[in-house]
Design goal:
mainly alpha, two-stranded antiparallel ribbon, 15 helices, globular
Length: about 375
């Protein structure tokens, strides 16, 4: 029999049922550690929800403002105010070693973005053959992945998430568990060229607030438009290039910069060189992904369903099972005690059927 009730999820801390959160359309996040889930801006672009479409339109408008500013030297304060995108840790999504502290997008990303908006992305917002997508800005270099795309997006829709969470809080959470917080980056005023802040009544966890995120914005793996996807879809992208001369030029250049017996990293590097020399390649990739918008929604729903099973159902089962043992009675104030706890967990998993709580039987690799 379970000895205690562990608080793990939003529903545990704020005394609401998981079903109420699900019915509202939000994901029941963990408030112990970030969950590896991410906001995919393509799901906003491709949504039938007009609010989401407006969010996407506003994000593109902001980057167009950045493009205008990129043509001139900027003081450090303006660069930080406009081009930095710190992690919005209050949504408890993404990667972190512990808790909800991640890295966000700082000076390196800011300077790279400013440079690229005057070179390779000089047509941002004015593309001829495809719509404009925020993810395009992350396709040039490997290493800018789903976490960074999500941080970028979350910064630009933070006001929506705060208002969304406030609506839920007023409907379903006791006032004693709420607090009034000032949330920045609610709306960007192009006249004053500043971000406006606003106060919201939000769920309170210690000294910080918590933000809920709609499930239909989320993905678990790569964003629908991603650097990794571009590399993996190289052949399909080339097949979609309808300009014979351009296709021949790209193929010739790609072959010239690709080493013999190239590794996967070298293939990725070669494709990055192609993108730098032939930026139109990006638009062909994006157009290819746009054509399968239904696939994006289906993939997201499937991945989030798997994540829900793993992080909400299976994890709770595992915690409850461990609570029936001495696992949580083991001290962790020293290395030896911590090692003993890990060893105990290993022994329990290997000698019982509990391994299935860690394993997704639908996957074979």
């Amino acid at each position: 029999m379970s000895q205690r009730k562990f608080k793990i999820y939003f529903s545990d801390f704020f005394d609401v049922t998981p079903g109420v959160i699900s019915d509202f359309g939000a994901f029941n996040i963990s408030l112990i550690n970030d969950l590896p889930l991410f906001i995919d801006p393509f799901l906003l672009f491709n949504s039938e929800n007009q609010e989401y479409q407006k969010l996407h339109e506003n994000m593109i408008g902001y980057v167009q403002f950045l493009k205008i500013q990129s043509g001139s030297p900027l003081p450090s304060g303006a660069l930080k105010a406009w081009f930095y995108f710190p992690e919005i840790k209050e949504n408890w999504l993404g990667y972190s070693k512990s808790g909800n502290n991640g890295r966000g997008l700082g000076p390196k990303f800011a300077n790279t973005l400013k440079h690229n908006l005057t070179t390779i992305f000089s047509d941002f917002g004015e593309e001829r053959n495809t719509a404009t997508h925020l993810e395009k800005l992350t396709l040039v270099k490997n290493g800018v992945g789903k976490d960074q795309i999500s941080d970028f997006t979350c910064n630009l829709i933070c006001g929506y998430l705060a208002a969304y969470t406030e609506r839920f809080a007023k409907l379903h959470i006791d006032k004693s568990k709420l607090g009034t917080f000032t949330v920045g980056k609610i709306h960007f005023d192009k006249n004053t060229q500043t971000w406006a802040a606003r106060q919201f009544l939000l769920p309170k966890l210690g000294n910080q607030f918590v933000l809920l995120t709609p499930i239909d914005m989320l993905t678990k793996d790569e964003a629908w438009i991603s650097h990794r996807g571009m590399v993996e879809d190289y052949s399909a992208i080339m097949s979609s290039v309808d300009n014979d001369q351009l296709r021949s030029q790209i193929n010739t250049y790609f072959t010239s910069v690709l080493p013999i017996d190239a590794t996967q990293d070298e293939v990725s590097d070669a494709i990055e060189k192609v993108v730098t020399k032939y930026p139109a390649f990006l638009d062909y990739y994006i157009k290819l992904k746009e054509k399968d918008g239904r696939g994006a929604r289906m993939q997201s729903a499937e991945k989030i369903g798997q994540a829900s099973d793993l992080f909400l159902t299976q994890l709770r089962i595992l915690v409850d099972k461990l609570d029936q043992t001495k696992f949580y009675q083991t001290n962790t104030t020293s290395f030896s005690e911590g090692f003993a706890r890990v060893s105990y967990l290993k022994e329990v998993i290997e000698k019982t059927r509990w391994l299935q709580d860690f394993y997704d039987w639908r996957k074979t690799n």
